[in-house]
Amino acid sequence: MAESKGKVEGIHHWVSESEVNALKVITDKLASEGYTWEDSAVGGLSGANALQALRTRLAAGNPPATMQFLGYEGLDWAGQGVLRSLNDLYTTNGWDKALAPQLLAFVKSGDDYISLPINMHRQNWVWANKAVFEKAGISEPKSWDELIAAGEKLKEAGVVPLAIGDEPWQILEVFEAILVDVNGADFYKKAVIDLDETALSSDQMVDTFEKLRKVRGLVDDGFTGRDWAVATGMVASGKAAMQIMGDWAKGEFLAKGMKPGADFLCFPTPAATPNYKFVIDAFGVFETDDETISAGQDAWAKAIMDPEVQKNFNKIKGSIPARSDVAVDDFDDCAKRSFADREAAVANGTMLGGLTEGFAAQSQFTGVFSDVVGKFFVTDMSAKDAVQALVDGINNAR
Q1: Which residues have CB under 8 Å from 292's CB, separation 6+?
Q2: Which of 18, 131, 165, 238 is the most core-located residue (most Cβ within 10 A)?
Q3: Secondary structure element (H or E) that encloses residue 339, with its range
Q4: Which of these, 37, 56, 53, lies nearest to 45 by C-alpha position?
């Protein structure tokens, strides 16, 4: 075995089985270029724990070579001047031409490319156990009222209708899906992206919380402290019928040897007008004077943006490639639906950044939504009180 050219250390929050397996696709490519991957995984809280670990490292003047970013995180770090510009790599390799325009807002800061997107997840999916659905005589619901009614039917049949944990981010996934599906993309943009107080305090927002309360009635008593991947496992085993979660959940089904269409079902959360809620995982690299580290960073960047790596990574992870020039032919049916829906959403203006993972609002506002929605779900807070708390919280964070 050739002597290593150096190591590349990365902080990330991929700790579930499918996530670890997907990451190995990138690190194997890195190894083929002579570099050793030093893994610094920090799981939990949808990446918040990993972000805290990074802050500690930067404060000590000891950044990793690379770090996984969600939403505005990369732009925040770029604003602090700690990230390398990737313009030379983007220009030399033509990566800019391979990315959908919606991604540029998150991988570019001013004139500088500052991160490398490996994938695009669709956030607004329902995952269902096919055998459980068939036994209960349930088909894909076409509205949230239909989904709730199907859940009541499943409850009567002795099955947990909806698998979820009490982590605020898991609950926010459901809330924001209801918000856009019931009220439409324009309302979502006003309320979540523009933070328009009229939209935030409207009857539509009250109704969104009321519908979330009905969804709460579909959850079992054991949801306290439940990890998202454990909830996916409940659907896989047939203990639960559904999970509302991004398509990282698909990676967990695939890791168990299950096949879409045969063992589990995938369909978008039910909307009158279809929409596509996107999340991307991207990696930034940190400024360094060490040429060995910067050479390793270059190799890491090329591994992430390699079309074959993007294809094989995403087939395991459950997402689709960030690069729009990777063929869809040998992806599964869920991914093919995601490709087609993404194309339609780009054309229709209904491609929307996911709130939960930080692609719709800055973190201080996302935090308000997360706190209020999470509290509403686990207490008897009224919908009107929740809306007032949301408006007050957003105004305080402005």
Answers
A1: 5, 6
A2: 18
A3: helix 333-348
A4: 53
